[in-house]
Amino acid sequence: MMLNMVQALNQALEQEMERDPRVVVLGEDVGVDGGVFRVTEGLYGKFGGERVIDTPLAESGIIGAAIGMTALGLRPVAEIQFMGFIYPAFNQILSHAARLRNRTRGRFPAPLTIRAPYGAGLKALEHHSESTEALFCQIPGLTVVVPSSPAEAKGLLLAAIRADDPVLFLEPSRLYRAEKEDVPEILTELPLRKARIIRDGHDLTVVAWGAMIPAALKAAESAAGSGVSAEILDLRTLSPFDEEAVLASVGRTGRALIVHEAPRQCGLGAELAAVIAEKSLLKLEAPILRVSGPDITIPLPKAENLYYVGAERIARGIRRLMEF
Amino acid sequence: MMLNMVQALNQALEQEMERDPRVVVLGEDVGVDGGVFRVTEGLYGKFGGERVIDTPLAESGIIGAAIGMTALGLRPVAEIQFMGFIYPAFNQILSHAARLRNRTRGRFPAPLTIRAPYGAGLKALEHHSESTEALFCQIPGLTVVVPSSPAEAKGLLLAAIRADDPVLFLEPSRLYRAEKEDVPEILTELPLRKARIIRDGHDLTVVAWGAMIPAALKAAESAAGSGVSAEILDLRTLSPFDEEAVLASVGRTGRALIVHEAPRQCGLGAELAAVIAEKSLLKLEAPILRVSGPDITIPLPKAENLYYVGAERIARGIRRLMEF
Amino acid sequence: MVLTRTADQKALKLQRQGRLGTYAPSQGHEACQVGAAFGLRAEDWIFPYFRDLGLYLTIGFPLASYFHYWMGNEAGLISPPGLNLYPLSITVAAQIPQATGAGMAANYLKKSLAVLATCGDGATSEGDFHEGLNFAGVFRTPNVFVCYDNQWAISTPRSRQTASATIAQKALAYGIPGIQVDGNDVLAVLAAVGEGLERARKRKGPSFVEAMTYRMGHHTTSDDATRYRDEAEVKTWESRDPLTRFRVYLKGKGVWDEAFERVVTEKASADVEAAVAEAEAKPAGAPEEIFAWTFKELPPRLAGQLAELKEFLREAGR
Amino acid sequence: MVLTRTADQKALKLQRQGRLGTYAPSQGHEACQVGAAFGLRAEDWIFPYFRDLGLYLTIGFPLASYFHYWMGNEAGLISPPGLNLYPLSITVAAQIPQATGAGMAANYLKKSLAVLATCGDGATSEGDFHEGLNFAGVFRTPNVFVCYDNQWAISTPRSRQTASATIAQKALAYGIPGIQVDGNDVLAVLAAVGEGLERARKRKGPSFVEAMTYRMGHHTTSDDATRYRDEAEVKTWESRDPLTRFRVYLKGKGVWDEAFERVVTEKASADVEAAVAEAEAKPAGAPEEIFAWTFKELPPRLAGQLAELKEFLREAGR
Predict the structure, then answer these.
(1) Of B145, B293, C190, D141, which is least packed with CB atoms within 10 Å of its CB?
(2) pTM for this structure?
């Protein structure tokens, strides 16, 4: 069935709730309203208010409550309305959810999923365009996942909910309704921790995720016009990430371009570059480049385009890398 | 006068409060008790409870209040008792303190200083040995400073308080009473954003900060016995960091070893490696190596030594880099 | 209040025309916003939230700037010199401990002034609300906290926001006097907040006002309130329109007539149109503008990124 | 309570001897810890904080594990099978919303059980306390929240922690019944908490108990309480020792005599010594142990770091 990402996520939630009575959904406006982006639409009507829970406006309370639910064997899926509003819950995520397995030597893992839309491109209010995934990639015990298409979104969300570790599942809001894709009605989960090559190439490797994937594909097509063959690796799981796939691709192509819309400094691109620089230095034919947002707060809509990373900037990065 | 780091910090606070009536101190137990590490000892008696403020137990409240104080022209120095307890204040730091200058186009900057002890080595309770400085280095607008000796601590704290931007000032608790140093009674501030070479060398560059500096010096001495000449760069300001100094030193030596006690993934070492890999690739004679804590939560005291980065591990990193 | 209503409706119209971004409408809140602001003095401080148009206008904040912000430019948050207005908080309740801190500063500086903070009922569930009010109680700060209890936080009704019988009674948890007033009665709000401001200026400590009102519109222009609330409820509150009520009151006092209404309405329309024109004439952000305010001085790495951006724009022919 | 006192004093002695790490002593809290725990049933859940020795012992948590944790090994946090005890929270108040979530889960699962959470008076200032209690009120969870109001949060006296007249009245802000009891009277605590547990099991909603007590010792072994509090105050509370009071009560009931005391004391000492021996015999963490529990399956990158560590240890001859 042709679905956009919102519909695919909705289907994943509905099917998984039907399959597994341990799955509950909670968050601000996820119930009666169906979520501000409608990802949870229809669930309240189908599963009721004790299972699709409209909470008060309190992010730390939401994540803390989700943690407590795992104690009794539930698998909560908590929604944080926008990534820019997740920080009040930072302590519950970092000091608790991510550490419980380790603190209790496996007695009380915390298999919860935190969903949040993230990223720029919607010309939204302050705090509504955040892309701070790297902050969460330094948290031991936390799995961070970002889908790049409707089918990916469904399969990875199923995997996130079924994972026995806490997962931060970041949804690129720019892709919510961008395109439809054929999403199998019956779909098992896609593997976590595995990157996928979505375009083969031999001149350079573009490592990206989320909304940067369609942009990178576009840039690669335009580069192909100039005879440049770009391989594109969709990282999918940002932490723990698939180092082997990254090194294998860069080893083949000899050039690495890392793309993210987050600020450059201490973005996940830094870690990827560092790993390549440590383990594949002799295979490199050019410096490792990053195309990213600058190290500033993302501007309000009037100047958002000056910040935002799209196909043009990626294409420019490809050119610069090939010209080296 | 020979002072340890606690005494040097205490002297900086006292002198700056005498000099500038806008400086106030707030936090848990900073007043009557003089701080759990005694950094604020004596200030309550000297300046009174409206200026050296014992707050209720609420980290977001502390930072939020400090921000509000800057509105009326004060320069608050807020203490978070341990870095592991700073996360509830993450939203106030990231979304507010660091952004106010930008949000108001300079009308309301937030010149506050947040002090927090950090790092391992004290064999402390859970959450008392955190080293998550990199989480704060991706926040645009926030300056992150770490001193590595008593005199540095005094000079950099003075600079942090006088800075017109918000500063996170992280104090390596392991160095609080480790050594005394001659600290000038009259000392103006040391420059922010400037690294310093604390040991000249020509075979490789060790970039480090905080408690890793004495360890790196020890490792460099032992390497010198094997004829290896290690240059040591104390980064001091972690964000925005002194890229020029890093590239200049690595350009001279051709080898880079980055040392931090934080987990490796997405640590600041990743950004340093990425910058070197982007801008100085052709000058490198060996891969960029990182010596760091592993990507796990720091263990409780019985196994803390398995995590902790000290001179031995740094020496091993130097050997591996030179053997390449 | 008429100006507020007029400007608010204009903002909605501009949003539909694509001339203004996502917008949080104020309809229904005119009395509590204006009433909260009316008793303020020049030396007082204000920590507002994101639905506070009437407050902004009452204290003399330029409407053009207000539009400019919601059109998508940070420069619209700049308070004119002499206006002690902190930028509105979008992250819910973060302004509460900040306002308390301003009150602590006033105490330390021995200033006789009041610090006003506003929030919605949803904000009362956030940790920051609690921490800020608790500090205010402990430090006896010169704060007045006003909660516009408008019954809905997006789709969450007041009854599911908290099981507390009133919001006002939450103040008792902090040793702060709390009062509930009719938020659609501008004079009631003014009286209650005014009393709090006086207490504050006399350094008698903080106070809390719950102003009962109703969010007549959607949460923002991205929201569709018909999905989750009853039209009948909206109708009930329509009949309590704060403007109508004040009009009736003024008429009873003999100071309102249709000519007066016409003058006020026309003045409001003209002011709003002028403000829109002024806001739309302001330049969009340039590369330098978005880089300039991260730090006091541009660090070399940021300067490099700015140069990179400008080079990209040049190459792209923009 | 005797066992708690004996184990607590032993922990302090071990800490001074360097055999146990920084420790948060429980002296003075025996009645509220034991009283809070005594009415629990096997199906109930517990979310404790870091000063809860008496609670742990009352519900049958192995003392050897408790020592093991405070000696510096995570394995000491493992609850035995069948014991619904979540790991204690060191970060203040984080356990409160977690306990509420457990209550929400119980509601969803239609289980008749109670969820107990404990905290100190300092915790009541944290945002998480507020958010967790507010959720409990809204969702009518089967929670009992017990605050050991021990007058001091490190150096902050109760009077500077909040301007609220009582901690118990804070519950009213969440539509939750709150009660203040004498926390040094084990039967009073048991009665109040027991009533709450019954309410919870009958799905009548949450309740809150403030148990007035006193932290007789330092905050932890790293603290020096003589720097900030009056010896006279400590003396006053010494005379209210919960053990003495219960002894007097039992004597009055004719169920206490010196022979009984001797038996109890000797049993406690023997149990404590056995627990210490058991805890000290446990192995220190191995490299595999500190890596094994970050994720369910060790990711390749972590496996690489583990190999790196083992190589380092081998090279270093350890």
Answers:
(1) C190
(2) 0.98
